[in-house]
From TrEMBL:
Protein name: Glycoside hydrolase family 97 protein
Domain Glycosyl-hydrolase 97 N-terminal: 23-290
Organism from which the protein derives: Bacteroides gallinaceum
Requisite cofactors: Ca(2+)
Keyword entries, A-Z: Calcium, Hydrolase, Signal
Signal sequence extent: 1-20
Subunit structure as annotated in this protein's UniProt entry: Monomer.
GO molecular function, one term: hydrolase activity
Residues annotated as domain Glycosyl-hydrolase 97 C-terminal oligomerisation: 599-700
Domain Glycosyl-hydrolase 97 catalytic stretches: 308-505
Amino acid sequence: MKRLSMICLFLLVWAGTMFAQTLKSPDGNLTLQFRLSAEGTPGYSLQYKGKDVIKESKLGFSVRPDYQFDRNFTVTDTQTSESNTTWKPVWGQYSEIRDHHNELFIAMKQNGTGWLLNLRFRLFNDGLGFRYEFPVQKELRHFTVNEEETEFRLTGDHKAFWLPGDYDTNEYPTTTSKLSEVASLIDSVRQEPLAIRSATPNLAVQSPLMLKSAEGLYINIHEAALVNYPAMQLNLDDKGFVLSTHLTPDRNGTKAYVQTGSVTPWRTIVVSDDARDILASSLILNLNEPCKLADTSWIHPTKYVGVWWEYFTGQGSTWAYTDTQDIVIGKTDYTKLKPNGHHGANTAHVKEYIDFASKHGFDAVLVEGWNEGWEDNYAYSKEFIYDFDKPYPDFDVAELQRYAQEKGVKIIMHHETTSSVADYERQMHDAFRFMNKYGYDAVKTGYVGGIIPRSEHHDGQWMVNHYLRVAQTAAQYKIMVNSHEAVRPTGLCRTYPNWIAQESARGTEFESFKGNRPDHTTILPFTRLMGGPMDYTPGIFEGDLSQYGSNQAKLSTTLVKQLALYVTMYSPLQMAADLYQSYEKHLDAFQFIKDVAVDWDNTYILEAEPGDYITIARKAKGKNEWYIGGITDENAREAVIDLSFLPEGKKYEATIYADGKKADWRTNPQDYVISTKKVSSKTVLKQRLAPSGGVAISIKEL
């Protein structure tokens, strides 16, 4: 009887499966199972240390006009391989990155159509990446995608850190809730006043999505190498706890236009039972192609100040040169218009920032509002908004180039498009030639408002191609790109390291709108920063904006937490974002911003829990200097800082920037104390962090 039962069980499994194969991670902790069902539908599952992470989930596509490209497949070939290499990024959190993975390749043919579809899985010690590949074939060349059918079947009602699904913005505040609670919360979250919103028609959230299971597993779902394909939202079945791919469409409803010979982005699942491993992961970078630039010597991490924050403080400074609204680009003669008297980007004022940058060792000065067009920058209704090579009459570009060069400082260009992308593409080469002529080697681009061409969304296929085209074109002119309001990053900074940073999330500017919560920056490294560095623009010392004028906003952090963000919010492009006068009042605390590196040899995640706290240490590139940043949410806590990462047998001096005894983000944010202490690799520091406070430490070898 027992033998008969085993035979029946075998036949049952065989009847439900046409093909199955298993792949292990190099350390054996992760197990991928690929399965082709009896109906010929491909699927996969993922386990970590014997625990289910993703239950069996289907793969495939629905393509136009109305055909299911997710069933009736037969496996025609399989291949497995192992790769264990290292590579050196141009800049980054590590001077060397290990790429160690096992790979499973599956080739399939659909019965009836004869269409071919391949799947490639890469299993690392920290997670899984997989993508679809469309080989060149006789029966299929061009097709459009109704939907990608990729599923992520979760094991339960996980705690989630989520943004509402949206085709045009990722600037919502992060909401923390159970997956089952998303539906009851999402409508109120979508009331957030933003420049543009285009909600998904069904219940969906954005990637990167950070999850924590009741069993203590940390799971991050995102994508890598987003090229010529729309960004991924995630449909949510909040009863069965199933996520499925929801590609950003154009306004005609088409998701993607595909030609065979291409591949999709990688779908990524980073998983661990230790939250620190999520932040330490290089999986997304490893899934991107190596650097495609032959010469990268001109790419350099940058620390900068700029004419920017004053536009948000309420003191009256403006991007616009005049108050005249009836502007026609190419026709309006600005020399005949009356200046409004409060234009921030004027020659004398920019020189003040150049002087400050030079005195304190900063690399560059960002200037916003330098070019014609800001008076009538009306999004979506107006196509010709700016000239990108015509400065305002009070911005002497040649004199400022001379002055900055004399002071050893660069000026960072600003190209706000107000999402008239069609016009920016027409002007892009002229704009970059203008930058070359006047010594600019970096540009901050912006995409506020609805996209022109008017059939497109920020996260659709056409715009995904545009952002990359800007980076590629800029590289021809040896220009670095920092894109704001763009699609969230997916590790392409490895392939194009001149794409040095992005905003693509809710940055510091929202502090001036009373818009960031104390837990905000304890979440972003687990979500937005998984795909690449963020130009978060920290360093605001004067947190009470009522000091300046009409704005009544107050910062959601202590001053010391602002220092710590230079370490916890990774970017090779870091701004000291406050007015320079604020730093002159606190030069002792400002010293940390002056000292802290922007490029690193190594990174050590010391403590981490998404939404609660993060403590990170980093070694400066090419120096025996280490910097530590620790932050907490609205709850005070004690950070335990183990310095065992320091080389043994040597002595060091630590300068500790700490919250004062009475520090509190609500009542006393500027209370801080600075002390020094001799430390070694055996030292364990215990430091109190105030509510929404932090600690910043610089360590130098004696």
